[in-house]
Structure to design on (972 residues):
């Protein structure tokens, strides 16, 4: 090791640059190797390591003066044979794993140049381990061994390198610093071509690695607590602890440091330790030991004790022990600086603590864990699974070894199925990036190839839909012990309830619940639920428009699942299938909901939506779930024959808006398209007739069907920005929903047909197709036109003509709203419209300023809407980008 | 070598040697030299060093070295070795 204080000379920098260049070249060339190539190299490396295991162990002992020869041989063999056994069948080149069900493929990318620090305690085994990992993953490594283990490490690197190159690895794949200083390490840690620092060593080296700003693998120091619980197999536990703590004279940082023993077994355990060759220190000996092997200034172990035999330490301390003493055991009464032996001791000195209870034992183990061992290793001996579980929850350790030796257990693949390693990740507790046993996957960048999936879609509708004149007669097939008809005062007054009653099976007990014809309030719903409970209803017939049917849906929900929290169920969501709040599936009561619609617009008889008015908070709550969909829908035009003209127009345009928005929705599918297109066709053909000739039975019937068919489409494809605008505008100015939709509709068609400023991400659509779908609708309606633009323009014109024919006001201004008043409202309108979930399925993501412009377009009115040329907009878009 | 544009095919079995020969021919040359790599499947560290040396020599002699038919794996090696920017490439 050179002088750490002097700056690097030019020659030294040139030397280090040469090493990096060589490694970079090797790593680059290595990327051309196949899996077969690297596997062909790894095996002879492993065999060479095995062959040299004893030689390298001997070199390590001679040089470091630490540990036990026999154990170092075992370590070298584990680092080669056991690691090989783990890596040999693993894919590390190209595709390494496939997940066909999710369309994901993992592809390996080497890291490049790795700068690796290796420790004094496990010198050659760590080098062998890292060399095998590097070749398996096609990386180049520059080694910087601990200065007191340089000769044995450089020999291990040489053996691995020569074998690897002989079998096809690129020249320069491993290099070892000929000598090093902290400045060398610092230079290499900060070198731009070093891609990863793998620091296995003391806290200083690890800290330097993490401080470099480079991606780093650094292992933390340990302080392994052991809980020896009274149900444990004591003979096994004592032997395992001795095996572990004496293995290589305790140099593995996962080895046991303080054993916390239940009071009931404490004496017995200590006797067993003594019987098997441990020396139990008395109070005076413990104090003497602590004073000698722990630095009183730093509180850390004295380096001179590391890796020494128990007898050597005893002699040094001045203890009188038997010649073959394996272990020195020192009872302690607490953890922390006042109890010096409670820290990490990488030599065969073990602290023991007598615990009066499980609670105390766990707390002392936690104290040890927090006294320098966070994230590293912990050990428990017990047959009590609950205590083992509790121990694992309390202690922060990357490896929690159960009923086996800590050090060898943590190395993996011997006593358990942990990944074999010589680098223990300690997680954030130890200042590390991983809690894993460091392995080949930490030497790879794993790329994930994610194929576009064909998103699952759905088409969910009520079980039964009965339609056409007198469809209400189908009620006869639904026997019931208690039926509740929910309706409005007006419908009861004009005799619609009587029609329903007449068509129920004879003797059906019926109760009529009349509710206000307005969006249902919470108190109305809760009163209704009380009624359902009182009559023990098994059938609910909702007879009315959207408000009545919505009320019935919510009453049914609360009747069947009283625990349903309406406010929680109204929580916003982006994707119905991924929503956070799930609707209840457990039901206290069961009732069938039959919906009979008396308007031709909302389609509530088949939709999974319900709107609730929360007057206390002054807001509307929208509930959406397929469990809200009625079980049976009856679409009988006899109930709409008397609808007034204005209502016919408004609800008819609501139906058209549903169909047009579902048709171009980002959730549209062939299933919803067929319904949307058919509904549009029916509206254009029959709405003017139903409006102008209210008693035309065919027109009424077809409009009633159109509303239901459009609802089938938007129940599954949702709506769009038109609804977001109409909701905001209608609520602010008290304009009926259908009419508010109508005022926006031509402008929204033109807007959606233009190339979006911002595309809407949607896994359900292959491309932007809204303009083409509008063109298809124009074709379906026979509107003519040669180009897409012409067809869309014709659709806008036809929509405007329909609105004119229905005497829908031509503009917001025509409603008597002054420009000044509208201008004042615009900021709020835009904000509310943007918050509205309706546009989330719009084919074009609306920007707030675009919402403002749409509102102004609607204010100015129809007849001036122009469809932008999609090709011109495309060009403009490209130029802007 | 006095010609303005020369096309040389690189032997895939002895890339480093071939590149060394090219480098020796650069003395006194001008213009552009096109090296056909279409028969080269892989490169080793010797070949990379030879390419680096060649790039260095070409820089000093106002000769543009163009590599033709380099497969994508070798192209990636040149990128990783930070040599790609020193050559022009022809597909």
């Amino acid at each position: 090791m050179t002088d750490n204080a002097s700056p690097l000379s030019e020659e030294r920098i040139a030397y280090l640059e040469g090493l990096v260049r060589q490694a970079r070249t090797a790593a680059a060339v290595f990327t051309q190797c196949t899996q077969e190539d690297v596997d062909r190299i790894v095996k002879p490396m492993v065999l060479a390591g095995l062959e040299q295991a004893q030689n390298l162990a001997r070199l390590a002992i001679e040089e470091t003066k630490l540990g036990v020869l026999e154990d170092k041989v075992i370590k070298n063999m584990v680092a080669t044979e056991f690691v090989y056994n783990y890596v040999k069948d693993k894919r590390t080149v190209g595709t390494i794993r496939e997940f066909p069900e999710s369309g994901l493929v993992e592809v390996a990318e080497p890291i490049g140049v790795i700068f690796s620090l290796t420790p004094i305690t496990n010198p050659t085994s760590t080098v062998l381990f890292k060399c095998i990992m590097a070749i398996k993953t096609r990386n180049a490594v520059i080694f910087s061994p601990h200065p007191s283990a340089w000769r044995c490490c450089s020999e291990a690197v040489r053996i691995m390198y020569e074998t690897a190159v002989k079998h096809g690895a690129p020249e320069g794949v491993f290099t070892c610093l000929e000598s090093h200083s902290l400045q060398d390490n610092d230079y290499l840690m900060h070198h731009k071509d070093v891609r990863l620092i793998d620091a296995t060593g003391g806290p200083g080296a690890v800290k330097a690695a993490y401080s470099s700003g480079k991606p780093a693998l650094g292992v933390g120091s340990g302080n392994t607590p052991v809980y020896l619980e009274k149900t444990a197999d004591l003979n096994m536990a004592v032997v395992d602890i001795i095996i572990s703590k004496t293995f290589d004279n305790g140099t593995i940082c996962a080895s046991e440091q303080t054993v916390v023993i239940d009071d009931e077994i404490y004496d017995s355990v200590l006797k067993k330790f003594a019987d098997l060759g441990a020396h139990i220190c008395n109070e005076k000996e413990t104090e003497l030991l602590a004073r000698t092997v722990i630095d009183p200034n730093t509180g850390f172990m004295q380096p001179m004790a590391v890796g020494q035999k128990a007898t050597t330490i005893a002699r040094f301390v001045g203890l009188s022990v038997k010649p073959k003493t394996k272990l020195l055991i020192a009872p302690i009464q607490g953890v922390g600086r006042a109890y010096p032996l409670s820290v990490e001791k990488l030599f065969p000195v073990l602290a023991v603590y007598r615990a009066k209870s499980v609670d105390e034992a766990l707390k002392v183990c936690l104290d040890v864990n927090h006294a320098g061992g966070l994230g590293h290793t912990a050990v428990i001996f017990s047959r009590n699974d609950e205590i083992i579980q509790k121990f694992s929850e309390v202690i922060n350790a990357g490896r929690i070894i159960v009923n086996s030796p800590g050090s060898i257990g943590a190395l993996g693949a011997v006593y358990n199925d942990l990944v074999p390693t010589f680098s223990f990740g300690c997680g954030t507790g130890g200042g590390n990036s991983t809690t894993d046993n460091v392995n080949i996957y930490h030497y790879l960048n794993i790329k994930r190839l994610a194929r576009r999936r064909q998103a699952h879609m759905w088409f969910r509708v009520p079980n039964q839909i009965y339609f056409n004149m007198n469809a209400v007669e189908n009620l006869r097939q639904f026997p019931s012990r208690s039926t509740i008809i929910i309706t409005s005062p007006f419908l009861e007054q004009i005799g619609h309830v009587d029609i329903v009653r007449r068509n129920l099976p004879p003797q059906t007990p019926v109760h009529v619940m009349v509710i206000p014809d307005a969006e249902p309030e919470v108190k109305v719903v809760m009163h209704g639920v009380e009624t359902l409970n009182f009559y023990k209803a098994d059938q609910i017939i909702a007879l009315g428009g959207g408000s009545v049917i919505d009320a019935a849906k919510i009453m049914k929900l609360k009747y069947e699942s009283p625990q349903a929290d309406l406010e929680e169920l109204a929580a916003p969501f982006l994707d119905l299938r991924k929503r956070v709040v799930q609707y209840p599936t457990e039901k206290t009561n069961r009732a069938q909901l039959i919906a009979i619609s008396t308007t031709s617009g909302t389609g509530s008889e088949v939709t999974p939506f319900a709107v609730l008015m929360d007057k206390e908070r002054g807001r509307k709550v929208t509930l959406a779930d397929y469990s809200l969909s009625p079980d049976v829908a009856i679409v009988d035009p006899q109930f709409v024959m008397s609808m007034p003209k204005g209502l016919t127009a408004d609800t008819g345009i609501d139906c058209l808006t549903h169909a047009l928005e579902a048709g171009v929705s980002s959730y549209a599918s062939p299933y919803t398209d067929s319904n949307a297109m058919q509904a549009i066709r029916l509206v254009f053909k029959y709405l003017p007739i139903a409006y102008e000739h209210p008693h035309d039975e065919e027109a009424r019937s077809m409009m009633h069907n159109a509303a239901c068919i459009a609802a089938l489409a938007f129940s599954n494809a949702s709506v769009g920005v038109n609804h977001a605008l109409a909701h905001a505008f209608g609520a602010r100015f008290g304009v009926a929903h259908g009419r508010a939709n109508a005022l926006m509709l031509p402008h929204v068609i033109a807007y959606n047909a233009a190339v979006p400023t911002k595309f809407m991400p949607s896994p359900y659509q292959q491309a932007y197709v809204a303009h083409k779908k509008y063109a298809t609708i124009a074709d379906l309606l026979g509107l003519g036109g040669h180009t897409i633009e012409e067809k869309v323009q014709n659709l806008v014109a036809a929509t405007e003509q329909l609105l004119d024919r229905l005497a829908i006001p031509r503009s917001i201004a025509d409603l008597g709203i002054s420009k000044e008043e509208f201008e004042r409202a615009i900021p709020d309108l835009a904000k509310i419209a943007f918050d509205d979930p309706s546009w989330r399925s719009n084919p074009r993501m609306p920007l707030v300023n675009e919402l403002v412009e749409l509102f102004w377009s609607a204010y100015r009115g129809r007849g001036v809407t122009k469809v932008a040329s999609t090709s011109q907009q495309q060009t403009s878009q490209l130029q802007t980008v | 070598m006095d010609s303005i544009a020369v096309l040389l095919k690189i032997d895939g079995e002895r890339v480093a040697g071939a590149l060394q020969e090219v480098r020796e021919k650069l003395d006194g040359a001008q213009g552009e030299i096109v090296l056909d790599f279409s028969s080269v499947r892989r490169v080793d560290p010797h070949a990379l060093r030879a390419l680096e040396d060649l790039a260095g020599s070409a820089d000093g002699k106002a000769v543009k070295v163009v590599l033709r038919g380099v497969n994508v794996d070798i192209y990636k090696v040149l990128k990783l070795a930070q040599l790609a920017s020193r050559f022009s490439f022809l597909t």
Q: What stands out?
A: The mean pLDDT of chain B is 90.
